[in-house]
Every structure is written in C-alpha cells, then in structure tokens.
Specification:
Helix content: under 10%
CATH architecture of the largest domain: Sandwich
Largest sheet: 11 strands, antiparallel
CATH topology of the largest domain: Jelly Rolls
Strand content: 35-45%
Order of helices and strands: EEEEEHEEEEEEEEEEEEEHEEEEHEEE
Number of domains: 2
Radius of gyration: 31 Å
Number of helices: 3
CATH class of the largest domain: Mainly Beta
Structural class: mainly beta
C-alpha cells in the first residue's frame, strides 16, 4: 500500500505506525525510525543542529514520575560511578598571625557535606615562615570535626593529618602539601581547619600566604570508594593484596522452553525462550537458560563478595515477538541452580521464578539486576554460589506477559532471520 499522508490536520494517526523504509523491528539494532499510534517511537540516531529543549526552555522533557535508564540501570546510578570533581574549596592570601614556638595559629576553615560510599581526596598546601635562628621545624596541621551537625573545629580538635617542614635558616618559607583520602560510611558533615605552629627553637613563626602562594584546602569527589580499603578516618591495617576490579560477560550455552505441564518444547521454538500463556493450548510457558561449566566457575569467584563491591550486574535478553500488537510487554525474570539443564526431559524442580519484572518496548536489551533498583535476590544467589542460570516467564496470566526471546542457538533463518542475540550475563566487581 502506498504511503498516502496518513496524518490529517487535528486528527490522530490512523495507521498502526509510520516508519522509514530501512526500519526492521526484528533487527537487533534496527536502522531508521518508527513512530507508533500508541505514542511510542524508535530512532536509531538523533542529530540536532539547533537548541534542544524541553518544556519552558528546560531539559525537563521527562516528567517527574518517569525515570531515565541506561542498559536497565537508572541513569543517576550510572553517573554516580564517575568522579564529580571539585566538591569544596577555599583559600587565603594573607599571612597568619605571628606566634611563638609551640603556639598554634589558625588559617582556613572549610565544610564538606559528604555522601556515603564516595571517595574524597583532601588536599591542603601553603608555606610556613620562620624568623630568627636556623635549624627549626614548623608543623602544618589539618584538624576536623565530623557528624550529622558537628561543631566548628578548634585548635584542640582531632588531627586529620599533619606535615613537618625543616627550616635551615631564618627568613625561609618552607612549602607543605597534605594529601588524604576520606571515604564515609554514611552521609555526614566534615569540618576542617588548617593551622600551623613551630615545634623547635626560640624564633617566631607564621603561615605565609599571598596571591602568588595562597594557603588553601581543596576537596575532590573521586567517585565511588574502592571496596576493601579503609573507610572514614578509621579502620584497621589492610592485610594482603589490594582488591582488583574484575569483569566478565557470560553467554548462555543452553536454553529450552517448557509447556504449562512441564513438557519440553520440541518444535521450531526448541531453543527459544517462550514465556506466557498464548491461549494456544500450550499453557503458561516458561523458559530456562544456563551457562557452561567454565562460566559457572567464573560465577563462583563472586561467592562471598560484599554486595557493595558489585558495580554492575545485568542480564541481556532480546525479544523476537510480543503477543500484544503494541510490541511491548513485561519480562518476568527468575533464576535457577541447575548445573546440567540439557539432561532434563521435563522442567527441573529447582527454579525460583518471577523474582522481578521489567516493562520492555520492542526488542529489549540489558536488564540491571542489582539493588537498590531491583531485588537483591539475584545478587544474593550469585554471592552464595547458587545461581547457574535464569528463568523467563511463569508470570501472571495476560497477553502483556507473553513474549518470545532469543535462545542460545536459533534454527538458521527461522522464524526470525538476522536477529540472533543469545542471552548474556555481565558482571563487574571488586575482589
């Protein structure tokens, strides 16, 4: 049928969809574009030559009740994996009061509203000046208070860090640099004061500052803390090797669908993942996929790893067909501990179905399975060594829960040519 202007002035789209000539919704990554009558749209590439804006010239094109996600993970969670740069800063360009030996004088105060689980780098620098005889020692100190609403630090507060500088003769200005890592366990306020004093000799001392050499404190957000390190300002000495960042992606090596009565499918969908009751006499179907022995050994490396050490946990599923004409539906994802799925003539008894649900439009993709965005059941099972694969389906009855997904191996060119995309599991963690 020729394209004959299906949109009329002040009227709705009368066709199910309009699309570019190169758009094929069965492709893993379709080219071109499509706009549907139900309000959904797919664009492979979006290029703008002018100013892009949402309502009221803002970028608030997504309403407050919605959220943005990337590969199944909340966008804010993804952004939080990066450093955020300078978090707090202050400097002084006038020299401190001159004091006698063993008398401390303050220089700068700085406050940081710290967030749990972040890594902060605290830097302080400047110069210490002495008058009089040679061979004296100056001391720069960072003192602090900490808590939900701590008092301002004084010259008797706890010392975070200190650095000594040797002055070979009177009239010298000796540089100092304090560098400290801070990783809070909870949201809290950190207050700092930079001070100095002389600790030997009979001369007088001061902390020098000028526009050419300011005294300063700078705090940088360096991203999430590295698991296994020292937290806050306390902790104990770390024994052994530091934790390493590890990452792997597993591809399913076996998959099978089961009818509502538990019988394995042996038709053209023998390797696909078929979910839901399609009202075709096959019952409420569910599908299983698993990994090979070597891949299960990789999963075993996560046994006992703390949940906060897991940065990414996601499952890839590609949808071939939804029962709903609107080309969308819910993925019901569970897991199992079966080690040799291919040996079962009927559905194994050890699956844990319907742990969580995802609403998906079109072909699907990566589904984040890590808390807090999703139930901790998946990652708890991985960390306990009791997950060897996943289940799809066995959800509530209804067309919105019916879908066909790619399995570990598809019959050549049938029934979904050029769209092979097997299930995968992607993990990134510290150990």
């Amino acid at each position: 049928m020729a394209f004959t202007d299906p949109i009329l002035a002040n009227e709705e789209l009368v066709r199910a969809s309009i699309r570019s000539s190169n758009f094929n919704e069965n492709d893993v990554i379709p080219e071109g574009w499509q706009i549907k009558r139900d309000g959904t749209a797919t664009f492979t590439n979006i290029n703008t030559t002018g100013t892009a804006s949402g309502p009221s010239a803002s970028y608030n094109a997504v309403s407050a009740k919605d959220s943005l996600s990337y590969r199944g993970t909340e966008l804010q969670t993804v952004l939080d994996t990066f450093s955020k740069g300078l978090a707090a800063y202050w400097f002084r360009t006038t020299t401190s009061a001159t004091v006698n030996v063993n008398v401390e004088t303050g220089m700068i105060r700085l406050t940081l509203n710290a967030k749990a689980g972040r890594t902060y780098r605290i830097l302080s620098s400047g110069g210490m000046y002495t008058n009089g005889a040679a061979n004296c020692v100056c001391l720069a100190l960072l003192r602090y208070t900490i808590g939900a609403n701590p008092p301002d630090p004084t010259l008797t507060s706890s010392i975070l860090a200190q650095q000594a500088a040797y002055c070979p003769a009177g009239g010298y200005t000796m540089p100092f640099l304090i560098d400290r890592i801070y990783t809070p366990d909870q949201d809290e306020t950190l207050k700092l004061v930079l001070s100095m004093k002389g600790i030997s000799g009979t001369q007088t001392y001061a902390m020098y500052a000028g526009w050419d050499w300011p005294a300063l404190i700078a705090i940088y957000d360096s991203g999430p803390r590295i698991p296994g390190g020292l937290y806050g300002f306390g902790g104990s000495d770390y024994a052994g090797s530091p934790p390493q960042l590890k990452e792997f992606t597993l591809t399913a090596n076996y998959s099978s669908s089961f009818l509502g009565d538990g019988t394995r499918r042996t038709d053209s969908h023998i390797n696909h993942l078929v979910a839901g009751d399609w009202q075709n006499g096959k019952g409420n179907q569910r599908a299983w996929f698993s990994f090979n022995t070597a891949d299960q050994t990789k999963l075993d490396d996560l046994i006992g790893v703390p949940i906060e050490n897991i940065e990414i946990a996601e499952v890839y599923l590609y949808n071939y067909e939804w029962r709903q004409a609107s080309d969308d539906g819910y993925i019901c994802l569970g897991y199992h501990s079966v080690e040799n799925l291919s040996s079962y003539a009927y559905e194994p008894p050890s699956g844990i179905p319907n742990v969580d649900y995802w609403y998906v439009i079109g072909g699907g993709g990566w589904l984040g399975i890590k808390p807090p965005a999703r139930s901790s059941t998946y990652t708890d099972a991985i960390r306990a060594g009791s997950l060897n694969g996943f289940m799809v389906g066995n959800g509530p009855f209804g067309a919105q829960y019916c879908g066909v997904f790619a399995g570990y191996s598809d019959p050549p060119n049938y029934p979904y040519p050029n769209a092979y995309a097997p299930p995968k599991l992607h993990m990134r963690y510290w150990k």
